[in-house]
Amino acid sequence: MNAMKNKVQLIGNVGQDPEIKTFDGGKKVANITIATNEHYTNDKGEKVEDTQWHRVSAWGKVADIIEKYVTKGKEIAIEGKLTHRSYDDKDGNKRYITEVVANDILLLGK
C-alpha cells in the first residue's frame, strides 16, 4: 500500500508550450498545465463538459522529454505526486500553489 500513497495519474491536453528553466549545474525543470475533461449529463438531460486545469512540474529526464517532445495541445499522460507550497508575492501577499510533480510521462495522440 505504500506505493499508492500520494500518487496522481492524469491524462489530458497541454494548455501551452512548456516553460523550461535551467539552473546552475545544469538541473532543469519543465512547467506545464494540463486540461482534463469530464463529460456527463445533468439532471435536466443536458450534456455538460467540465474542464479542470492542473499545474505540473517535472525535473531531470522527464523535463528533458517534455522540452523535446511536448507542445501546446499535445495529449499526454503523467504520473507523479501532489504537492502544496506557498510563497510571498512582490506585494508581500502569501500565495499558495498546488501542483503535480511528475516522475513519469507518456506521450499520446497527435
From TrEMBL:
Keyword presence, DNA-binding = yes
Is DNA-binding given among the entry's keywords?
A: yes
Q: Which organism is it from?
A: Flavobacterium paronense
Keywords in alphabetical order, please. Answer: DNA-binding
What name appears for this protein in its UniProt entry? Single-stranded DNA-binding protein
CDD domains, per this entry? SSB_OBF
How does this chain assemble?
A: Homotetramer.
HAMAP family in the record: SSB
